[in-house]
Write a structure and sequence with these properties.
The complex is a heterodimer of chains A (190) and B (506).
Chain A (H helix, E strand, L loop, with lengths): L7 H14 L6 H9 L4 H19 L15 H23 L15 H20 L2 H13 L7 H22 L14
Helix pairs in contact in A: 3-4, 5-6, 6-7
Chain B lengths: L1 H15 L2 H19 L5 H11 L5 H26 L8 H12 L3 H34 L4 H17 L5 H16 L1 E2 L6 E2 L13 H17 L22 H23 L5 H15 L12 H16 L1 H7 L5 H12 L8 H4 L1 H22 L3 H7 L4 H20 L2 H19 L5 H23 L6 H4 L1 H26 L3 H5 L1
Antiparallel strand pairs in B: 1-2
Helix pairs in contact in B: 1-16, 2-4, 2-16, 3-4, 3-9, 3-14, 3-18, 4-5, 4-6, 4-12, 4-14, 4-16, 5-6, 5-12, 6-10, 6-12, 6-13, 6-16, 7-8, 7-20, 7-22, 8-20, 9-18, 9-19, 9-20, 10-11, 10-12, 11-12, 14-20, 18-19
The chains are: A mainly alpha (190), B mainly alpha (506).
């Protein structure tokens, strides 16, 4: 089973082969992909923190900083943003000076693009169906799609699980706990 | 003082034994025990899901139940570690080292029995500690002005972010990020909207439940999907009668249990060193003083008793700073504090005085809950063991649904489910970059109070920052902060030459 772990579409098809063989993903390409990022993970980590800091520090002053005695709403965000920028620089700087760490790749050893997609699709579909069609379809779609992400999942198994959770969920949350969300409706206006 | 403590405790039992409160407590420990057993579900995610559902019930019942989930999960987590060798709950990772070899030797039942006993001993000590120590702390804390509270929070945040797992500097970065997340929404004093980026739904701030479930729900599922090795249930056929330890076992486990308890209660007092660190330290200490250290790792009963007692004593002790000072030590405590604030209760030293029903009711419910847990775990062990075999592929899709409906139920707002999704992606990215997301929650919960107190302190001192050095208590806390950071740097420098003994155990 030779495939690139960095390619979402390929993983999607090949993960089905993986299921049948029951073998974890091949190391080769994935490992090389990981190696390219070696010793660079903390650069990205620091960069992300600096980015957050910039957003805060640049937007902060527009909310009026005020003086130390009469602080405006912008004071705290600006200060925190500046601190974050320094922390980000420190994180990236420590990576330059620091020793090699075994765990340096950004992606895990066997990236699960299909699984991640399914997990993220679950709540997304819950939002979509919950807004236009009610609790039952939303629950079904959420559980069904996210269940497909597992290596050992089958269509039938996912359907049964989704059906079971839908019945249980609607009974518990709609009838017992009375969460205000219609079970079934059709509403195209948001 | 002892006398008042007992009168108050008596009053607390009155509160906790009210039928509906008793029911919430029972429900909490039951759910906690269940998610503790289920591999791949944590108390954090569970408490976040349950949080919106507690909005409708009274604050006392809500907090009894949510706390019950936390300590109940600790009982369940041990079962998972001992029988399956799965360290699915960090505090119990050490228990695997000797618990699983015992299981392989056919003594898994005894290991579980010892675990239940040690847990109860540890928890009892933790609760007693809370009964006597919390009121004393409150006496001191009531003298604090805004400047003192500010520095105390700073100390709590620093300890919480640097002493926990992972790189200290990354931990601090996560805390600051959490503080920033706490700022989103309308400013408390002026009403100015900050970082809402044009979304009117963000003007009330980021929803606590959405943040917690994004970080500890969705990001966790992404982290563990298709990673779990198939569950090996070969050894998990445990019956009630297997659990009784022999006299020799009890004798061997007795002192380790006591030592573990003491380690745990000490760790609980330092913010940031929660149950996980307590259990590692207890195991390392036990191995060090043992006359036969080479038995450890091959089924030594001390290696089960000490860390378990330590975990539980620290779990109960964790509530002390949270309830008496309003400073949470870890993410779970931050979440519980958030639950109190949603119910309209201001955490801090005045809590015990203004809401004695919550504080003493909680302590009484700890006793009741721990007894219930022993009762649940001993005769019903067969059921819990059965739960172990539920595969992850059924668990996480169902859990995702609970996450969605839980967030929706918080405000009946689909936008917040979207918030959870975004936070989940961010959380997973942070995890992959080597950050631990727990301090975000700490910063998020303390953020608004920190800002408020800082502003007030500055207003009183007329913008003079020297107030933090001139007031003795402030100076003391600040000195502790400096000491903490210096110690971290010192150990880091030394640790790069020699391996940290605590980490080497894992």
């Amino acid at each position: 089973m030779k495939q690139s772990g960095s390619d979402g579409a390929k993983t999607l098809t090949s993960s089905k082969h993986g299921r049948e063989e029951g073998v974890p993903h091949h190391r080769g390409d994935v490992h090389i992909f990981g190696q390219r990022f070696k010793l660079r993970r903390d650069y990205y980590a620091g960069g992300l923190i600096i980015l957050f800091g910039m957003v805060a520090a640049l937007n902060g002053p527009s909310y009026r900083t005020g003086t130390l005695m009469h602080m405006g709403p912008g004071f705290m965000p600006t200060v925190l943003g500046v601190i974050l920028i320094f922390l980000g620089i420190a994180i990236a700087g420590a990576a330059v000076a620091g020793p090699d760490d075994a765990d340096e790749s950004i992606l895990p050893e066997h990236p699960q693009w299909f699984g991640w997609l399914c997990i993220l699709a679950g709540p997304f579909l819950f939002i979509v169906f919950g807004s236009i069609a009610g609790m039952a379809p939303a629950t079904f779609a959420c559980v069904f799609v996210s269940a497909l992400g597992d290596r050992g999942a089958t269509w039938k198994g996912a359907l049964v699980l989704a059906g079971f959770v839908t019945v249980f969920g609607v009974a518990l949350f709609h009838y017992l706990l009375q969460i205000p969300m219609p079970v079934l409706e059709w509403r195209l206006s948001w | 003082m002892v006398e008042t403590a007992f009168t108050d405790l008596w009053y607390g039992f009155g509160v906790a034994l009210e039928p509906h409160n008793l029911m919430w407590c029972f429900l909490g420990v039951l759910i906690g025990n269940m998610v503790g057993v289920l591999p791949g579900m944590g108390p954090l995610a569970t408490i976040s899901i349950l949080l919106p559902l507690t909005f409708g019930i009274k604050p006392v019942g809500a907090i009894l139940m949510l706390a019950g989930v936390f300590y109940g999960a600790q009982y369940g987590g041990a079962i998972c570690s001992i029988l399956l060798n799965l360290p699915c709950h960090p505090p119990h990772a050490v228990t695997c080292l000797d618990g699983f070899p015992m299981t392989k030797q056919g003594r898994g039942g005894v290991a579980l029995g010892i675990t239940v006993i040690s847990s109860f001993v540890g928890a009892s000590w933790g609760i007693t500690e809370m009964m006597f120590l919390a009121p004393v702390l409150v006496q001191v804390a009531l003298q604090f002005g805004p400047a003192e509270i500010c520095t105390l929070m700073l100390l709590g945040l620093l300890a919480g972010s640097t002493l926990a797992k992972g790189s200290p500097i990354k931990g601090v970065a996560m805390t600051v990020l959490g503080l920033l997340f706490g700022i989103v929404g309308s400013d408390l004093e002026t009403g100015a909207e900050r970082f809402s980026f044009g979304f009117p739904q963000l003007s009330d701030g980021i929803e606590l439940v959405a943040l917690a479930l994004g970080l500890f729900g969705i990001a966790e599922f992404m982290n563990s999907i298709n990673q779990a090795s198939p569950v090996n249930a070969k050894y998990s056929n445990i019956k009630f009668r297997d659990m009784r330890p022999s006299k020799a076992d009890l004798k061997q486990a007795f002192f380790p249990m006591l030592r573990g308890t003491i380690v745990g209660s000490l760790c609980a007092l330092i913010p940031g060193t929660g149950p996980t660190i307590a259990s590692f330290v207890a195991y390392a200490a036990e191995k060090k003083i043992s006359k036969t250290p080479d038995r450890f790792g091959f089924g030594a009963i001390e290696g089960v008793a000490a860390p378990e007692a330590s975990t539980h004593s620290s779990v109960q002790g964790d509530f002390i700073p949270t309830m008496s000072l309003g400073i949470p030590g870890d993410a779970v405590m931050a979440l519980l504090l958030g639950a109190l604030m949603i119910q309209g209760i201001v955490p801090g030293p005045q809590l015990i005085k203004e809401h004695p029903d919550i504080f003493w009711g909680l302590i009484a419910s700890f006793w009741i809950g721990n007894i219930l847990l022993v009762l649940l775990n001993v005769p019903l062990i067969g059921i819990w063991v059965k739960l172990l075999t539920i595969p992850y592929r059924y668990l996480y899709p169902s859990a995702l649904f609970f996450v969605c409906i839980g967030v929706y139920a918080a405000n009946n707002d689909m936008f917040q489910v979207g918030e959870t999704l975004v936070v989940g992606i961010l959380g997973y990215t942070l995890l992959r970059l080597g950050f631990q997301p727990a301090p975000i929650l700490l910063g998020f919960v303390l953020g608004p109070r920190f800002e408020e107190n800082f502003r007030r302190a500055m207003l009183i001192s007329r913008g003079d920052l020297r107030v933090f050095i001139e007031r003795p208590i402030c100076a003391f806390f600040l000195a502790l902060c400096v000491l903490l950071i210096t110690a971290q740097i010192y150990f880091r420098m030394r640790g790069s030459k020699r391996n940290n003994p605590v980490l080497a155990v894992g």
